[in-house]
Amino acid sequence: MRTLCPALANKTYFNYGGQGPLPTPSLQAITASWQRIQEIGPFTGAVWPFIERETARVRQALAALCGVGPHRLALTENVTSGCVLPLWGLPWSTGDQLLISDCEHPGVVAACQELARREGLEIRWLPVLELCKTHGQSTLAAAVLTSLEQALTPQTRLVALSHLLWNSGSVMPITAVAERLQQQPSRPWLLVDAAQSMGAIPVEEAAAAADIYAFTGHKWCCGPEGLGGVALSERLLDQAQPTLIGWRSLRHEASAASSFHSDARRFEVATSCVPLCSGLATSLELLSAEGTAAQRLERIQAGSRRLWQGLQTIAGVSTLLPEPPPAGLVSFTLAGRTSSSVVEHLGEQGLWIRRLDDPDCLRACTHITTTEAEIGKLLEALSDLA
């Protein structure tokens, strides 16, 4: 797959957690789809079967990865819309509490804060980051569940917890958290930001267990930006109402008097870019050809382990996690250097990592396309800086 990505030919790339490179076959599929729509006619009777086929193709592929039926999968533009649209459609009462982990992305946190302001809700915080720094993955799950137990109250109505944390790179026990919430009398909703997990680790069990499992196709799936999805639980589909409404939300698109779709499509809005469906479906097929999700994760872990171990030998470098990461996100700091200056210096050498704000650190990502030579080159450059 590496040879199919032009973006990897002239740089050393470690920013898969921000955006993955688009393989040439996926770009060709997008172009061919656009051309086909124009040949048929963008608004003719003959074009709709093609549009429905390409949309169904990607919906079915994403639903299969999430371990849910296609009726539980809504197509979205990105992770944020996948989180926010169903979140704001849930029934809320004044005084309900939103329990948010301290490792969530600002986009999700800001949406929850505004929801709380409008609906008279209370925000509480679930401590997770410090647990990641002091526990290995084998003991982290139990520590997170203990923290959850201490934070839950009778007023807790939603828990927001990412599957693969974007800052520390730790994997959260989503299935176990979902099981615990079902035991709570109020049965809080579980919202999962899956921006870093989809395409990086097996997600089937977690996605099927969560109420909202939102992801994008442009990171670890190496698809085009502008297309993602969200897997929704059956009980959410039974209780939540659409928030941003358009013709795709309706059973009969030509009538405003029509009822909304009974399935996840009620959270789809209106006109979107169909060729992106062709591109993402192609990227997913390319990933599948590289092995199962578990097999690909082994390759990702081999790279992140090599990088993490190499970082331990560099004076002044401290990794956030006490052991090799469970996936491809490797976060660390370099003493005596600001994170922004490190990113700038490496970029001048064609080495691309990124800086995170919370906590202030550096993050490098390894994917199945990352080579031993690239990891060695990054470690050498960091050693020179140190």
Structural description of this entry:
42% of the residues lie in helices and 14% in strands. By secondary structure, it is an alpha/beta fold. It folds into 2 domains: 115 residues, Aspartate Aminotransferase, domain 1 (Alpha-Beta Complex); 240 residues, Aspartate Aminotransferase, domain 2 (3-Layer(aba) Sandwich). The strands form 3 sheets. The protein has a 7-stranded mixed β-sheet, sandwiched between helices. It has a 4-stranded antiparallel β-sheet with strand order 9-10-13-12, covered by helices on one side. The protein has a two-stranded parallel ribbon with strand order 1-11. Strand 3, helix 4 and strand 4 form a beta-alpha-beta unit. Helix 1 runs antiparallel to helix 10 and helix 2 crosses helix 10.
Spatial separation of the terminal alpha carbons = 33 Å
- Count of runs of 4 or more consecutive helical residues: 13
Quote the beta fraction.
Answer: 5-15%
Query: Tell me, what is the CATH class of the largest domain?
Result: Alpha Beta
CATH superfamily of the largest domain: Type I PLP-dependent aspartate aminotransferase-like (Major domain)
Q: Give the CATH topology of the largest domain.
A: Aspartate Aminotransferase, domain 2
> Main β-sheet, in a few words?
7 strands, mixed
Level-2 CATH architecture of the largest domain: 3-Layer(aba) Sandwich
Low-confidence regions: none
**What is the β-strand count?**
13
Number of domains: 2
Topology as a string of helices (H) and strands (E)? EHHEHEHEHHEHEHEEHHHEEHEEEH
Percent helix among the residues?
40-55%
- Structural class based on helices, strands and sheet pairing: alpha/beta
Structural shape: globular
Mean pLDDT: 97
> Measured on Cα atoms, how large is the radius of gyration?
21 Å
Strand order of the largest sheet: 2-8-7-6-5-3-4
